[in-house]
Amino acid sequence: AGKPTVVGIIAILTRFLEDFHEYNRDIKHKKPDRDEVFGTYHSLASKHLLPFDEVYRGKPIFDIRNDDSVFMSLAAYREHLLAPTLREAFSHATNPDKLFVGAVVQNCFGLEYTCRTGVQVVGKDAHGNPRTKVSDAPPDVNGIDEFCNDPDYSKYCESGQIRALYVNETESVGPASARYLASKLWGGETYFVQSDSHLQFAQNWDTSYIKELRLAKSYPKVILSAYPPGFGGKFGDESFGTKLCSCEFSTSDVEFHIIRINNGMGYTVGNMPPNPRQIPFMAAGFFFAHSEWLVDVPFDPLLPWCFMGEEIALSMRSWTSGWKMYAPRHNLIAHQYRPGRMGLPKFWETVGRTYGRPGPGFNTKLQSKVLKRVKNIVGYPAASKEKIEAEGDGDVLDSIDYYGLGNEDTYEAYLEFAGIDVINEKCTALTWCNQGLVE
């Protein structure tokens, strides 16, 4: 078989995407049901992705270098800020020559059909409710080309520091799946950072996060994570980090009681400890860890169509695998938060069009099935193996032992640590977290 290469891994991922694209292209007018679409995705993942993961179970795909290199995983869905984000990351890094990016570029390329905008608010009706429309649109900008054609940054592309996997939007099935793909573009770098693709960076963000990581008491099995501040505010040394201290069981119709994570109190001038403090949760939109984390908590390829649920699953899986989560004391990145009025495309709109059902409803049906996998990991009584199988959805639990909880710390200990009552669907306010009492 020989030694793995990033190029060879991209070829495996591309074969999966090509088979999925062929199915999606041919099925649109047949309006397949939820179980058929999931079954096809599942069978293709079982053919292409799961066997590869099995080969590297319990070991890194590449030897982990000890040179303080940083790999940044970016899942970009029809992203107009990908190139600016890359410019920000490289121009503000202390060691841009040690920064490597794995970008999953999910675009409408305009080759087989006309691209569409997101849902745009164009006014109000007589009752004061928003009037919306979806319009034809040009093909999406290729942010990788835009970055690599910039003479100030082209050297990073020429040196192989930008690894891109291109995905037609019809195969865009949510952030959890895209982040699985992006994690496979890692090439042995010392540190792994996962972030969104619409960010700004403080000066020396890379070495500052490495220093913060090493200051944490549990190093090296440490994860720094936070919800960053939005664009337009302060970040860097002047911006104190907040702690992911609280959670809630969602009540909206489309989230199916999944656990959502929220900010608690932040660090302050008068309460700035000499090292970062533990938190019970991690955010999918930003975390920074030693790359050994990828071995202990491999990304799950069987969470398509999920917009909620990946954060609580990652938190529980990491903690029970012996990794402790910490709130960085300063915000070194800023994130563009995107209210619906911006009219940007959403992946669930693509899912609806792909299967002949415009709107978010079909993705919600798919998500309702896949979330049973997350709920089984989290321990919801209604999502026991027996109940899921009785509902005819047993296939969502495949390989869950590999992509489930760890065996370094117990499930029960995590629930107590995080203040979660799964039986009664309640989260407790955590004084220890808000006050930063646990190193």
TrEMBL record:
InterPro entries reported in the protein's UniProt record: Glycosyltransferase, Nucleotide-diphossugar_trans
Stored Pfam families: GlcNAc (PF11397)
Lineage: superkingdom: Eukaryota
Record PANTHER family: GLCNAC TRANSFERASE, GLCNAC TRANSFERASE-RELATED
Protein name (database record): Uncharacterized protein
Lineage, uppermost ranks: Eukaryota, Sar, Stramenopiles, Ochrophyta, Bacillariophyta
